[in-house]
Specification:
Layout: H1 2-20, H2 23-39, H3 41-48, H4 54-64, H5 68-79, H6 86-101, E1 103-110, H7 116-130, E2 133-140, E3 147-152, E4 155-160, H8 161-174
Parallel strand pairs: 1-2
Antiparallel strand pairs: 1-3, 3-4
Helix pairs in contact: 1-2, 1-6, 2-6
């Protein structure tokens, strides 16, 4: 049930955000709000407490959310006591927003952290390769030893030393 509700919320939000030209702004607001709800139990207690005036709750929501679309969603979640859906809605909205904007998500793991200039060069190269805007998430993984592991959309590219050694081992065992 929760999955279905969050999906329908996300679709409605994308439609409203598209009309308002605020797809990225709503995404940022939803991510911020979902992060606060997940990390601050006192905030959830404050928002759900029946003795806290609605005006005070709205002040807090206005500080966190800059777009009216996100504010309205939070108001609905508060009224229906469904704050627990915030993270799921934010995740589903992000996925739908990426598709709407033609953005592909790319995860990259390397043995050592990439510098900001290296990340930017990699992002640009991936954008040229895919013909789409790329949202890059780079991280260091010391288990890689050398090389790079990448997931671009649904495609995985494993050009790591670990993977090469596995391939060599498999060839030696099968010989």
């Amino acid at each position: 049930m929760a999955s279905s509700a969050s999906y329908h919320f996300a679709i409605s939000l994308v439609r409203s955000a598209r009309k308002a030209g605020q797809i990225d702004g709503v995404r940022e607001d939803l991510d911020n709000f979902a992060g606060l709800v997940a990390g601050e139990r006192r905030l959830v207690f404050f928002l759900l407490h029946p003795l806290v005036p609605a005006a005070r709750k709205q002040e807090l929501v206005n500080l966190v959310c800059e777009t009216d679309i996100a504010r309205r969603l939070v108001r609905v979640l508060l009224e229906t006591k469904n704050l627990g859906l915030a993270a799921e809605i934010a995740t589903r909205y992000s996925d739908l927003a990426r598709k709407e904007l033609g953005v592909v998500e790319a995860a990259v793991r390397t043995a050592a952290p990439l510098g900001s200039a290296e990340e930017e060069r990699l992002r640009k190269a991936l954008e040229e390769h895919t013909g789409r805007r790329v949202e890059l998430h780079a991280s260091a993984d010391p288990d890689i030893l050398a090389g790079v592991w990448m997931r671009i959309g649904d495609k995985v590219i494993d050009n790591t030393l670990r993977n090469e050694l596995k391939a060599v081992r498999a060839r030696l065992v099968s010989s």
